[in-house]
Amino acid sequence: MSPSHPPHAIKVETVAHYVAEQSEPDEKRYVFAYQITIRNIGSKPAKLLSRHWYITDAEGVIDEVQGEGVVGEQPLLAPGQSFEYTSGCALTTPFGSMRGRYHFVTEDGTAFDADIPEFFLVGPRTLH
C-alpha cells in the first residue's frame, strides 16, 4: 500500500446553480440544483450507504437531512471509479450553503465517512 493510494479515500466535487424557473422570490422560494461527483481515489472498492447534509440558509437556519444512498442508489465504486448525480434543494433565502458527509463501507466491512466540502448556493443578485 503506497501513501498516495490509501485504502479508504473518496474525493467529492460539487457544482451548484440557481434554478430561476422553479423559484418564486416573491414567495421566498429559491431553488438550487447541484451536481456531485464522488470518486474513489482509494485502493479498495467502497459502497456508499448513506448521506448526511447540513443545509444553511442566509439567516443561519440549519436544515439537517439524512437518508440512505443518493438519488435512490447505493453505488459501489471500484478504485478509480466515479459516480455522478444531480439533485436540488429549496431555501427561503436567496443564498446559503451545504456541507456534509457520505458514509461508506468496504467489502471487508470497514466503515468510513467521506466529507462533502462546503459549497455555496447563490441566487439572483438583489439590491438592498
Keywords:
elongated; Immunoglobulin-like; five-stranded antiparallel β-sheet; mainly beta; 128 residues; 0% helix; three-stranded antiparallel β-sheet; 8 strands
Q: How would you portray this structure in words?
A:
With 128 residues, the protein is an all-beta fold. It is built from no helices and 8 strands. It has strands spanning 10-18, 30-40, 46-57, 62-68, 76-77, 82-91, 95-106, 111-122. The strands form 2 sheets. Strands 3, 4, 5, 7 and 8 form a 5-stranded antiparallel β-sheet that branches. The mean pLDDT is 93.
Q: How many angstroms does the end-to-end distance come to?
A: 56 Å
Average pLDDT, to the nearest integer?
A: 93
- Which series of helices and strands comes N to C? EEEEEEEE
Structural class based on helices, strands and sheet pairing? mainly beta
C-alpha-based Rg, rounded: 17 Å
Q: What's the main sheet like?
A: 5 strands, antiparallel
Percent range of helical residues: under 10%
What is the CATH class name?
Mainly Beta
Strand content: over 45%
CATH A-level architecture = Sandwich
Tally of alpha and pi helices: 0
The number of strands is 8
Low-confidence stretches: none
Shape: elongated
Task: Tell me briefly what this model is.
This protein is an all-beta fold and 128 residues long. The chain has strands at residues 10-18, 30-40, 46-57, 62-68, 76-77, 82-91, 95-106, 111-122. A hairpin with a 4-residue loop joins strand 3 (46-57) and strand 4 (62-68).
List the helices and strands and how they pair.
Elements: E1 10-18, E2 30-40, E3 46-57, E4 62-68, E5 76-77, E6 82-91, E7 95-106, E8 111-122
Antiparallel strand pairs: 1-2, 2-6, 3-4, 3-5, 3-7, 7-8
